[in-house]
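Support case: user asked for a sample of complex input and structure output to validate their parser. Sending the pair below.
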Amino acid sequence: MVKILLLGLSGDTGCQVAALGLHEKLLEILKANELVYAPTLIDAKEIPEGIDVAIIEGGVRTRHEIGVAEKIRRSSGVVIAIGSCACFGGIPGLANLMRGEDLLGKIYAEQKGTVPAEMPTLDELLPEQRPIGDFIKVDFKIPGCPPEVGDIASTLTTLLAGGVPELSKTDVCEKCPRERVGGYSRKLKRIHEEVADPRRCLLEQGFLCMGPATLGGCGAPCPAAGVPCDGCRGPTERNSDQGLTMLDALTSLTSELNEGFSLPQTMGMIYRYTYPSSDLVKVLNGGRKR
Amino acid sequence: MTKTVTINPLTRLEGTGRVEVDIEAGSLKDLRFCVAVGPRFFEYLLTNKPAEEAPRISERICGICYVNHHLVSVKAVEDAWGVQIPEAATILRRTLNAASFVTSHTLHLAFLALPDLIDIKERNIIGVSQASPALTETAIQLHEYGNRVVTEIGGRLVHVVTAVPGGMTKGLTGEARYKLLREGRVAMVNVRKIADAIIDIYEKRADDPREYMRPETLYMGLVDGDGNYELYDGAVRVRGPDGADVVQFTAQEYYQRLEETTSGHSFTKIVYLKERGPIAGLPRVGPLARMNVIENMQWPTTNEYMEVYDRLFRRPSNDTAAYNLARTIELVASVEEVIDGLSDEEIMSERTREPVKARAGVGYAFVEAPRGLLHHSYEVDENGIIRAANIVAPTTFNHKNIENNLRVWAEAHVDELSRKGTRPKAVWGIEKIVRAYDPCLSCSVHMVEVDITVDGERQEQRRAA
């Protein structure tokens, strides 16, 4: 009986919902093992000692969440970061382009349609959204927004059988059903402007598809459904910085960015899930460790 | 001396939250419903982003209501740009939205709420699966069906991708559609089994007004042109606790009709009907509210079950206990609406989208999410870049009334809360009420954790939990 913890920090519970997609398989895992703490599913109120496998979703945005992460690390044999918020900071990390205290003023006092009354006290809020690996040692990462159900299942079953889980070594393009025919659009296009050729590589057609810079293993469902990959699984094994990898590719492929696309828009496209853990941020911070 | 009973964390719901009850000299002094998911500032992080990307970014607000965020977001962008979409795209989106109700309501009823409604020791999904293996299997099948429809129309499960300004990037044709239609027949059988089981529980339930309380509030929800049930379009109707119409308005009237304020003690924005003010104007949203604002449902099987609902709760009902039965009726409706959508031959049209042009403007939209009314509005510049965003999620609408509901309950049960022996049952009573609303605490978007000064030991415990 392996003791399992399942907890969400600052995130959207989507990873846990994805895990529910395992259905019978999840019930089997839960019945064969012991779920000791999982507020979404069971009523245990205290994080116990002696956890074997802790699965944490979500990033860290409050002082309280640092404490929770540290407590889990102390009590657990193996810690798994599940989802791109926990692994890289995720979409909420895009708010790091503004500091925490300014954000509160913006949302609570200045927003249209809001009559500001008392302001919240801010002492619990950290200046930035961070991945949990910035605060505690993480043994395994299952990236994705959310991760593939298959990755969750194989990581758990491999771990529970005493093995070492592994992720894909390829990029998203490997399994993409679209064809590269050669040649690239000179201009970057936006998804609403043109109905893309359903068979041809989206990047070749000028749509900003993050496929080449993104960890594979998902089966490329987004390009298959007619939209570019937006990079939710983070960088590939070979390239640590997803945004710079993509920027590098773009500069050699296209000569014109779309009108209206300045730096903030581009950041939202190439660093959508990984801004807080990017090399760029490390460089901006002078290599300081947080 | 004030004694504080803390329920932390609230369990079997989405996100992190707690309830704190202050009792002084045998009476209730204060009660706070606090949301502790780290705030993620989506309204800010959407600014400076291309508007056509908003449906994919904003759905990350919630791992359960992602479909609804995706759709309300694309509708808001289309409103700003003055875009009309092909008929097939509307059917696809309606069917997708209904499918999200199949999944979400099944998840809530079978895996989160049922443990409170039946007599089992281990009150959770594992306990239910041991006590009622057949019902669990049925629920899993129905949940899977909802997931399959979402995946097929949305392009993937959890965080769908196919809605773009101008329509849908993918249609639904041939074998995929037939398969979902065939499976839909099984889903109809399954949803009846689940609805019958829950109605059976409600039929036997003693009618105790103190169990969940009957707070008299406003109710808010979408209605179609005839005042009937509507999840994707239509107007917002507000009714009073007696069922009297208060006002009806469109998404574009948002700022004339609704207002938000902040609160020192809850750190949650509070939404209210402007003309009634921040106390009398607080609405309830979600399944109970939708039952109270509509005239009729439009599907035959749903209407059979609706008769049972009307017999047990008689619309309009203020009884919080009715939430789960209303949710059950809606679960039946959502399966019927999905099958309706799939059956419509227009859904197979190859024309599911048109290229569109960005322009400056302000766009407003509402959809119904499983937990209640959901609003997005965006101010967009001439390049189609978002300059300001406003998001009001169902739990932001409900939050203050959940707290008020708990307060009247705690006043009536202060003795049970005070005594150690009866406290666990009283705490369960509080959790059942919170859970009835199926709150989505991640969805609350800009809620911030409340820090309350307590002695060192308690603080430590709180961090640990």
